[in-house]
Radical SAM protein (Polyangium fumosum), 639 residues
Amino acid sequence: MSVVPARGLMGERIVRRGRRRAQEERAWGTMTTMRVARVLTNETCNQGCGFCSARRPVERPDFVRSAAVLARIDEALAKGTREVVLTGGEPTMRRDLAALVRHARARGAERVVLETNASLVTESLARALADAGLSVARVHVPAFGPEADGITRDEGGFSAALTGARALAAAGIPLEITTPVVRNNLDLVAAIPGGVRAANLPASRLLASIPVEAPDPATLAPLEGAARALERLDQAAREAGIPLSLDPGAAIPPCSFERPARLAHLYALNPGGVNRPGHERVPACGACVVSDRCPGVPRALLARETTSAFRPLTEDRVRRKLTVISSVREQIDRELVTRDVHRAPDGRLVPSHIVRIQFQCNQACDFCFVSTHLPAPEDEAVRRAILEIAHAGGVLQVSGGEPTLNGRLHAYVALAKREGAMAVELQTNAVRLGEPGRARELEEAGLDVAFVSLHGSRAEISDMITRAPGTFEKTARGLDALAQTKIRVRLNFVFCAPNLADFPDFVRLVAARWPAAEINVSVVGAFTDLVPRTESLIPRYTDLLPVMREGLGIARAAGIPVLGFESMCGIPLCLAPVDPRGFFDLAEIPSGHDGGEFVRAEACGRCELSARCFGLRRSYAELHGTSEARAIVRGAEIG
């Protein structure tokens, strides 16, 4: 084995991260035992970040030789590893790196990930890595621009890294951007998402880390500065439409933030993660609602910060948003596909599957029930799910999170159409569809319907609900682009307390700007623990019906169809402000299809639509009761 000579090596200690890193990641709920293994390929690097704890001045021959690395890969796979992460040092200094990737795949690794600064990556190396089966390249970017060179102590390194990252992308290797938050880049990290987007790097996500130990402690960021920088980075990532994750092996506790709920999507806690090496409890932990799943505060951080910097989390809503039910992989498998049926107006039942190709999102609606902290599912799993519904001749609903954040979206749409799907619908906020060519690309792939979430008639309302300032205008531009295609557009307005009075103005906006679109009405529902069960979010039907009725009148006059009453996310059919006789031709709901999520009122026992209506959502009944329901009898006078 030979290693490319390093530039500017420093005599710094190495921290053996294999076993400790696995313990750390399991504690934050991001892996199950021995599912992910980090394999050190070498211990030298061509850059010199002062906060790096993994670099040595020279290689240890016995450790770096090819046979030793192959043995470490084999050992990890023998223990059940599904994902091998090749890291260093700088792995691209090895001349046999592609052979290591090929070996890991040949021995059964489902994914092989490379962590690299990319500054040594050439087009030929990128092609070799792609041919060997590399799944993802995580490219280290501490700042976007020449300022990065001051952090890495590698003059010209950023330009070289950008060239290398482009070579990896051109070879078809998915990119992720890794960003440490340290003292020298606190004011720089927020510019990274916009820089990545402006450079047309197809990054599927940003992975931030907050080191708490370093050979030079002066390079570490103070807790408050790191928390504020991460908040700015999160906002910038939303605006750029790039999902942000937090490296569980280098994280600060969620109580570090001024508004923990806004950053909760970065965490994935579970009760098994309470015991984590190198962490301690502080007095605030005693009253914290996540004390049974949060490992506490890194001991190294406590050496630099007072315990008063931490405060207990007390809101159950925050606990729900921070929590993952089981392992990340198992939760992805559980949420990847929702098998549904479409009830056609003529009484037919058509299989309809929701396939979530992306869990992360560039918005953060309070009523979203998706586990947006999860990473994207495996490409192979997505394709299997698509083929299942396509071969059944059913309807594919491509969803998320925000599916337009997945670079394979158009390929998935084309696959479904090619393999026999009756129709393909995209559930999206359309924030990225205003980018040049995106909507047209989906039209060419065969997309039939764009189901676009827009929950207000103006930015003040919409951006408050989505908690993503600036995205109302981007969604509007995305809808403008869709209107120039043959894709059928259906706007989804979710009734919730904050937008209750806005529906009539929303309909007026649609009529004026997108007159060929349809409107789908939904009502917020707390059918997972991620959604708050409060009157400040979930309105009574009695309160929303007058504005719904007013909006329907405006839509009727403008010739805009309004749909969705009969869906699981709609409204009890007896309360829908339309002629209920149109619901009698609906197919009956298959037994058990509601998953026990709905309840029946006393009036439902006398209603002739009961077999075609879901009833009232259980969480709604617990909050507001069931007295609003009424029986519909065929042939009775309709009021």
Residues 593-639 form one domain. Confidence is low (pLDDT under 50) at residues 1-34. Residues 223-240 form the longest helix (18 residues).
